[in-house]
Records
---
Amino acid sequence: MEYFSLQVAQNAVVTGLRTKVTASAPPKDTPLIVALHGGSYSAHYYDATPTYSAAPYSASLRVPLIAINRPGYKDSTALPDAIPEESTFLQEEGRYLHNEILPAVWKVYAAAYGASSIVILAHSLSVPMTIIAAALNATAPSPSSNEQSQHQEQGDEKVMGKERETKGEQDSPAVEKSKEQEEIVKGNAAPYPLAGIIISGFGTIPNAPTMARVAPHIDHNAPNSIFPISLKDDLMLYPPSAGFTDPEVYDKTEELNTSTGMAEFADAFGPWSTYWRDKYAKHVKCPV
C-alpha cells in the first residue's frame, strides 16, 4: 500500500496508507473503504505483512481501501489539547472525522477510484468516532444532486503526480488540498455519502477485568503511553502456546505498537457508556 498525506482544515494533516489507483474502471456502485485502526496501532494494522494485508483483497475485489492514521497517531495531527467543557475526547474525535477527515478523503480520492460512497471499517477504539460520524452524517442535509454530479466528473489528475510513495513516515510527506475540499468542509450539508459502517472489537459494556490488567502498565498522568508487547500479545492474540495466531503476526507486534493517547482511553472506559446510545447511536441510519 502507498503512503499518503492530506491537508485538512486549520493546517492539520491526516496520513495513512492507500491501495493503488488502477487503470480499469471499477464495478458499479463501488464503495471506498476507509479503515480506522484501534488504540496502540496505526494504519499499518491493515498492511502488517504481505500475507496479513488488506491490499490483496482490495485488488481482487476491486474495492479501494484507505487506512488512516487517526489523529495523534504517527504523523497525523493530534486534536487540540483543550476539549470544550460540554464535550469529551471521543466526541471531538468523531466530529473531526466527520467534518474534516472524511470530506478530505472523499473529495480528493473518490473520483480517482471511481467510488460511489464511503464505507467505514472501524476496529476497537475507532468504533466510537465512527458511530459519532455516522450519526452526524445521518442528521446533516444531503448534498445536492448537482454537487454529486460535479464530483463524479472529476478525474484522477488531482491525485496522480501530487503524492509520492514512501515506506517511512519519517520523510516529509507530500500534502494535497483542493479548493473544492476547502469549500465543502465549511458547509452544513453532509460532505460525503456514507453507505455503511463495519465495527468490531468494541462492546457496549466496559471490560473491567481487561482494564484491571492494563492499568498497572500505563502512565495515566502522561498524555501518551506505550503498551508492553507481552501484555498486548497476551490480551489480543493469546499466548503463542495457545496456537491461535500465526507466528508471523507475533514477529510484527513490536513494529506495529504505537504510542496511544490516554484521553481516548479515559473517555472510552468512562463517560462514553453514558452518552453513546441516546446521543449518537440512535441517529445512525446507514447499515451497520
Note: Confidence is low (pLDDT under 50) at residues 144-188.
---
Amino acid sequence: MTNITTRATRLLDRAPPSIFIRPFGICLQCRRRLSTSSTSPRNIHHRVTYSPLRLPSAIYHRTYSSSSQNPTTKRIQNYYDLFPHSLPSGPPPKGPFHIDTRQLRQEYLQLQSGAHPDRHPSSDRIKAEAMSTYINEAYKILQSPLLRAQYLLSLRGVDTAEDETAKTDDPELLTLVLEIREEMEEAKSEGDLIGLKKENDERIEMGVREIGNALEKDDLEKAKMETIKLRYWVNVKESLEAWEEGKEIVMHH
C-alpha cells in the first residue's frame, strides 16, 4: 500500500493540474491499553491502518469508458461519483449504505479497463496511471464496510481512523475482547475456534446494519460509535483467521 501511494504521489507531481489525488493517511499511533486494571492484556499493540483523507474540494478529472476511446469529463466530489451505475444515489443519507459488491466490481473492472495507460496516447499516460491508482483506492474503500464507514464519516468531518480519542469505553465490549483472547490462547486446534468465529461474524453483521441505519438517518454520533465497535470486531476476526497453535496471540485494536 505504501508503494502504491508513493507511486501515485510521484505521478501526480508530474501530472497536469486537472487531476488531484490524496493518499491514504499514514498510521495510527498506539492507543492506550484497553484497561488500567490488572487484567489488562499485555500484548495489545497498535496496527497500521490506512484511511482515505477527505477531498478538500470538488475536483475534475477524466473518466474513461471501456467501450470508447473518447474520454468524458466529470465532476468528482467523492468515491461514490466514480461508480454512477453501482451507486446512482450517492452516499448516505441520500443513498443506502449497503453496496452490491458484485455490481461494484463489474463497474470497477470497466473503469480500470478504460483508464489503462496502454489505451491512451503517451501524452495522457501519466494522468491515466494516476487515475487508475485513484480508482483502485476508491474500490478498496467502498467494498469494505468498515473502511466505507470510516470514509463516509470523514466526509462529514468525523475521524474514526486517526483520532487518538476514537475508542470505546464500553466495559462489556472490552471484557468480551479479553475473554475471546483467552479462549484463543486455550485453543488446541482451529476447530476450537469455530464457535468464536461464528459469533464474531454475527457481531460484524449486526454492526454493519447498525452503521447503515445510523448513516441513512444522518445520525453521525451513533454511526461513529458503531464504527469504532466494528473496528474491534474486524480486528478480532483478523486475529482469529491468523491463529496458529503455539503462536503468540497479538490482539490489535
Note: Residues 1-68 have pLDDT under 50 and may be disordered.
---
Amino acid sequence: MDHVSSSGEVAVKIYNCDSWYYHDIKHLPEPTRQLFEEYSGIPSEQVLDHIQHMRSRAFAIYPYPCIGQLRFLNLSLSNHPLYPEVISRLRHQHLTGELQSLSIDGQYSGISYQHQIPQTFLDLGCCLAQDLRKLVYDGASPHNLYGLDVERKFIELSYELFRDADTLKSQFVIDDMLRTDAEEVDLQVPQNAKHNESVSPPNVVPLASLEGRVSIIAANSFLHLYDYSDQLKLAKRIERLLSPE
C-alpha cells in the first residue's frame, strides 16, 4: 500500500488492485445494515446495491484496500472496548459548581448545580466518515464531531453514501496533518473541479480551529499510512489538538 507523503500527496504505483477488491458483499454486519436502514433511510432491499455503487465510486477516487475489501462496513470504532465510554462522554459532560441566590431575608445562600456539555471527537483519516455517522446514530452530539481527511472527494461522497447532506451537523477538516503552520491550505472547492450539485459541500473548518479543543482522537485508520519518522511528527501534532482537560 502507498504511503502519504509529508506534502499530502499519494504516490500511485502500478499494481493489481483487483487482488484486494471484493466484488460481492458476502456478509453485511447487522449494525451496519441498521445504520443504513434507520439512519440513512434506505429501504432494506436497496441497501446492498447502494453500498456496492458507492464503494465503486470511492475506489475510483483512490484504491485503498479498506475500501476494496469493504472493511469500512465493519464500523470498527463501535467494536472498541472503550466505545461505551466514548459515547457517554460525547453525549454530555457533567460540570459542577455553585450559584449564589438571594433569599427573602436578604441572605445569600449557595445552590449547587450541574451543567451538561458534550466533549469533542476527531476522527483522523475519516475517509467516508462511517464512524462519525455511527456515533450520531448512537446518540453522540453531532455538533461536536469532526472528521479529517486529506481528500475532499471522500468526504463529499460520504454524504451520498449516507444520504445526510441536509441533516448531518458534524464538521470536517480537509488538510494534511504534516502541513507546517507557515503553509496555507485552500479550503474552497477549486473552480475547475467537477462538483455534484446534488450534494451540499461539506461543512469545512480549518485545522487550527481545533487546537487544544479535542477531547477524544481516533487514529486507528490513520498512522499506518505514514513511515516511522512522520508518525513521530504526527504524534506531536495530535498532542497539540488535545484539550488540556
Note: The first strand starts at residue 93 and ends at 102.
